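In the current project phase, our protein records have gained a structure token line. A sample record follows, to show the layout:
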Amino acid sequence: MVCDTLGRPLRFILTAGQRHDSLAAKALLDGFKAEAVLADKAYDNNDLRQFIADIKAKAVIPSTRSRKVPIPHDEDAYKDRNRIERCFNKLKHFRRFATRYDRRTTHYLAFIHLAAVMLWLR
């Protein structure tokens, strides 16, 4: 099991390349207890916001421009999302990560661990 620095389990879901990630967001969050869910504007939909409220978490998602009444979000917490985004951008420099050469999920996850260690050691 993959854990963060505080020992909490992390979960990864591999989706089809052309499928929008917001469709898998509920499956990713299912069964987790979270204080907040950080996401970008693409995840701003009422269905996901209701799911986040049902798991008693705070939705830190900026509203899209098409929303008639913008929903406020925690600006400071949203800035932390950038750190996660930068981590994934660094991982994408590894060709094997970006193109998903590995057929098995366990092999792919093992490479993610290896790439994360290589980035950490820099």
Observations:
- The beta strands are 36-38, 58-60.
